[in-house]
Amino acid sequence: MMPHLDITAYLTQYSWTLITLLALYSIMSLFILPKIQNNLRIRSILQEERPAPYKGQPANSAYNIVKDILKR
């Protein structure tokens, strides 16, 4: 009999699949997706307001906002 058709192993395969998918979902939602969201927020802020060239001038408000976001 083929192992993938064995009824006795079906429940353990199903439970390990659910455990693995739950772990991957947790890792994605807690660690990876917030970083991506933060990067997209920073990009949109920087696209709205371009930085002034650095010649002793104070940073514009976009960089202040980015600093605030990165502190969180």
Describe the structure.
The structure is a single chain. It contains 2 helices and no strands. It is mostly helical. The chain has one domain. Helix 1 packs antiparallel against helix 2. The longest helix is centred in the middle third of the chain and has 39 residues. It is rod-shaped, with a radius of gyration of 24 Å. The model has no long low-confidence stretch (mean pLDDT 78).
List keywords for this structure.
single chain; about 70 residues; mainly alpha; rod-shaped
Largest sheet: none
Query: How many domain units?
Result: 1
Number of helices: 2
| Separation, N- and C-terminal Cα atoms | 56 Å
Uncertain parts: none
Strand % is under 5%
The percentage helix is 55-70%
N-to-C order of helices and strands: HH
Count of distinct strands: 0
Outline type: rod-shaped
Backbone structural class: mainly alpha
Rg from alpha-carbon coordinates: 24 Å
